[in-house]
Amino acid sequence: MHIVIIGNGITGITAARTIRKHSDHEITVVSGETDYFFSRTALMYIYMGHMQFKDTQPYEPWFWTKNRINLKRAWVKTIDTQNKQLLFSNDDRMPYDKLLIASGAKPNKFGWPGQDLIGVQGLYSYQDLEELEKNTANGINRAVIVGGGLIGMEMAEMLHSRHYPVTFLVRESSYWNNILPEQESQLITRHIREHGFDLRLNETLKEIKGDANGKVTSIITGSGEEIACQVVGLTAGVSPNIAFLKDTEIKTDKGVVINQHMHTNVEDIYAAGDCAQFQHALPDRRVIEQVWYTGKLQGEAAAFNMLGHDKMYEPGFWFNSAKFLDIEYQTYGTVLNTLREGETEFYWESDDHQKCVHVVYRESDHLFIGINVFGIRMRHEIFNRWLLEKQKVEHIISHLSAANFDPEFFKPFEQEIINAWNNQYPANTIQLKAKSAFTKLIFGN
Amino acid sequence: MSQANNSLSLSNPHPANFNAKQKTGLAITGLGLLAFFMAWAGAANQQPLIFLIITLVCFFGGGILFTIGSYGHLPKGIKNNRTMFTSISSRGALAWISGVVITGFYILLYWRDFWKELFGADLFIGLVNLFNPLSLLLRNTKADQWFVYGTLYTVAVLVMGFKFIYKYRHNRYQQIRTTSVMFFQLGFAWLLPGIMKALYNYEPYLTYFWPLDYDAIFPTTLSYFQTQGAFGMFFIFWGLVMTFVATPLLTYFFGKRWYCSWVCGCGGLAETAGDPFRHLSDKSMKAWKIERWLIHSVLAAIIIITVLLLVDNGFKNNLLGGAAKDIAKGYSFVIGMVFSGVVGVGFYPIMGSRVWCRFGCPMAAYMGLIQRFKSRFRITTNGAQCISCGNCSTYCEMGIDVRAYAQKGQNIVRASCVGCGVCSAVCPRGVLKLENGPDNTKRTEFLFTSEDLKILS
Ligand SMILES: Cc1cc2nc3c(=O)[nH]c(=O)nc-3n(C[C@H](O)[C@H](O)[C@H](O)COP(=O)(O)OP(=O)(O)OC[C@H]3O[C@@H](n4cnc5c(N)ncnc54)[C@H](O)[C@@H]3O)c2cc1C
Ligand code: SF4
Prior knowledge:
The complex is a heterodimer. Chain A is an alpha/beta fold. Chain A contains 12 helices and 25 strands. Chain A folds into 3 domains: 2-106 and 239-306, FAD/NAD(P)-binding domain (3-Layer(bba) Sandwich); 120-236, FAD/NAD(P)-binding domain, CATH 3.50.50; 319-443, 2-Layer Sandwich (Enolase-like, domain 1), CATH 3.30.390.30. In chain A, strands 3-2-1-7-19 form a 5-stranded parallel β-sheet. A 5-stranded parallel β-sheet of chain A has the order 9-16-10-11-12, covered by helices on one side. Chain A has a 5-stranded antiparallel β-sheet with strand order 21-22-25-24-23, with helices on both faces. The termini of chain A are far apart. By secondary structure, chain B is mainly α. Among the domains of chain B are: 4-208, no CATH class; 376-456, Alpha-Beta Plaits. Chain B is built from 19 helices and 2 strands. A two-stranded antiparallel ribbon of chain B has the order 1-2. In chain B, helix 1 (20-40) packs antiparallel against helix 2 and helix 3 packs antiparallel against helix 13. The two termini of chain B are 25 Å apart. Chains A and B meet through helix 1, helix 2, helix 3, helix 4 and helix 7 of A and helix 7, helix 17, helix 19 and strand 2 of B. Iron/sulfur cluster is lined by residues 386-392, 402-403, 406-407, 427, 429, 431-432 of chain B.
């Protein structure tokens, strides 16, 4: 059997590795972007000079030959589902027996005037990175980033690392507060400003202007201000990259529509990762999941189903992480930007405003629902267990030090957090359950 | 050699624009270097003290000022911007020049007598004169090239240690660990031997034991100590206890990091002066293979040589005649001088800071075996938070592909890990933590490990 995978991102590659581990089928991975799998999440570090491109490739070239995974560098133009063939942009064809679509996503463009000028770009692919190098090769005086999400923050940080002034236009009233609760959003907003970014809140993009050579020269904001700039970063989210499927019978909506077995409406064709959209959402999950680990889990689930195992996609509890300049963020369970019906919260912030813990729990029985942590590392495994065990919030707070994952000798904050709790709820005080720092150091948790 | 910018960044983005503090710091360091080289050329023969003071004050002052200029105005956090574009840290021209200069210095140093004979002139006389006042003060003895070298080495560890601590001022593990290597270098590798020299005419290095200190239990050393009374017995005892009792115990509890990145002088230099080069270590599977062959061969060699010498000595040197001594001499030349000395430090800017520790050090091999098979130390991986970005592997000075484990949710248990903790520091997702814990929790089975693809890699 010849299994073909479109996309050499984390989703496609996880699928390929899983299939190889469990079978001897012929595997071909097709991608137009790069010869080898690399970590998209590390694009920023290449531009900032922390890493070279080759450092972002998790496997050395011999890996693919050794494990008999064929790599083909080409763009798929369309799929001939009748004859079970891929059609490439140079009109070559490749037959498949089973096909996985893992074609990822692409940056959103909302039809802004001037969005196709030279110097205006998103950040998703290796080519985008090359373009940014080109756009800044001779130095620039200012860049404007439009859209206050994670990729916008990364792009801003990249340009900042090369000492280019950055104006950051964010539609929301505070950074990323469409996702983060107000407190965390404020904390990060302050941090962004501390780093010297020109952060404009409640601000949108109206128009991008260019010169006679088609190069960007300035933008006009929603409030009518003109800002001169040589680079505009469009980072208003991403959406599934499925244009090449439009003349096929594969059902699409925003993404390729799949069921919980990663199966599309067409026999032998599966989809997973950033490009896929579930027919029905799982509890506390979105229908389109565009993060690294869901790509991994979906790729794995797809692989099993392609091999004929009956495996549902079961991602478990939500978690994620990110880093905003110098502040790390982790989340376990569900913390939305506003409390839902029946939910209540406990919030603690350190005196230097660099760390905070935000716990959401059910008001009626104190069931722990989720946590946001900034500036402190926490153990995934333990929070996962607590969520499974349906622990109460008091248990979580009093056992926080068992979940602490900061490096050794870091200042612990658990006692401070507990004091804050006890101040807030004098009728319901709790005590820290922790081993001494010394015991922990020698004997571990 | 792979070139610095085979990434996309072909143009040097923003040539280093040094700020005023950095420029002043560099200028002061330059002044120190000028005094140093003038003295080397003989200018300080009359007034060594003045030249020495200028040299040392400029080295410390310039280094501190440069450091503050580099990081002082920035918020606390990881400071790796432009590492891959900067000439000195990306195998650019400056890196090759410094590699050649340092290597050259070692070659002059180790074979001082040889060059003296060859050229008919002592190339080190100027430097020895320069450091005389300090040597007399500390050791009550005139300087020799080893004192010059030891002092420069200590200065490098202290100045660059300060830089490292300041760079990592958000990370207490890094600060405490670096303070520790600076303390052991200054106290146990410089002050104590100096004072003991003044008092007892003997320079003990209490933080070097067999098999790194390869002749520590050679018959010649043992018989020398036996003539030194209680003092000598103490050193024999100390060395044996450290090698055969303390090392296994401490390594069992804390991993080899207790030595390699907290105490050892070679490690001390690597962690401080070598820090700008840590990412240059080769991460390939091939390099790992070479490493395992090489380092364990060195360990085997020194064990065999030591046993041969001891046995031969038991037979009053009749067994092997002079052969055993010749082998020992060969080891001392190839491993003790060329490998650990010249290559170990001279190749920093090209092959990274831990070439010797990774490929050659028999002490590291010995502790590595314990760490791999019987130790509570491991690097724990935080569930499924890894995004495979590669920062951890890139900045591993030992060339461990940390990411290969982290992305599978596996803990990292590797013989070569020196526990510097930089992987954990640079990880942007809080995935890695150096820990000591029960053996049975060394490997977490979690989320992705069910399908971890061990057989593939
Ligand atoms: C800058 C950036 C930072 C990010 N940071 C994080 C993070 O910190 N944490 C996190 O969880 N997630 C992060 N993400 C999201 C994460 O990277 C994605 O969710 C993940 O990479 C999706 O993987 P995938 O394999 O589904 O798709 P992709 O990685 O997009 O792979 C799809 C591949 O298919 C190729 N392809 C598409 N169409 C065709 C065609 N027609 N023919 C041939 N090849 C085709 C594409 O070129 C691409 O190479 C980040 C994304 C970006 C862009
Ligand atoms: S640095 Fe962290 S997130 Fe990046 S590959 Fe290593 S463990 Fe994973």
